[in-house]
Amino acid sequence: MQDKEEERSLINVEKKLNSDGFTQDFNVCDGRLQTMDTESKKSYAPEEVTIVDFYRFEGESDPDDMSILYAIECADGVRGTISNSFGTYADAETDEFLKKVDDLGKNLTKAHK
């Protein structure tokens, strides 16, 4: 049995989400969520995106070194993840996009189990 610390590592959560079908990596560019897959590049407006779940991680040596991993589902069924730093180190464009998504939905359902 894994200890709680190991279970909550970013790598292990990403593996679990990947096995649950969250296989795309996303980034935010020009106010839209984009797949990082160069072959089938897609982009989405905030209203086409749902935050299914999110996980916070603190840095081992510095509590200010915190990041958040979001499990995302798009209107066309594409599922994946995007991460962002928390607080002063956050990417402003990613942070702004995810706030719009959260404000639109307020539906953090954990339906991927």
From TrEMBL:
This is Phosphoribosylpyrophosphate synthetase.
